[in-house]
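Proteins fold reproducibly. Next comes a concrete instance:

***
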Amino acid sequence: HSYHKSKFVSSANFLSGGVYNSVNNINAYFDLKSQNQLLAEENRRLNELLFNSKTDDSITNDEFAPINYKYTSANVIRNSYNLTNNFLLINRGKNDSIKEDFGVISSLGIVGIIDDVSNNYAKVISILNSKSSISATLKKSGHIGSLTWNT
């Protein structure tokens, strides 16, 4: 009968829809890593555009030419935050043009300074390190000082 047939089709659609939805959710979960990499690359490119488009003549290099900032995205491989001298390890190094004394930032602000570099990895002195001292300016008052962590 058509009533029973419609109930069967409706139940089959419900069951197959649930299975397809579960498979889609699993595929989306495993695709998150590649999506995060795409977002990180886009953020890197946008940061580079933003900071290099500023016309601040007070920021210059040794040759008195404006600095052209280059951003590289990286993942934190290891991070300590509960010690006196905290460090991070990132998955970028000399092969990615990373050098000692480069700054490291995140979307939330300053992370630290590159301390040591191998071909594929770099060690970062965290701002949560008692040996870290970074020149900083307060936005509201314009006061200049050192950003340090007293443990």
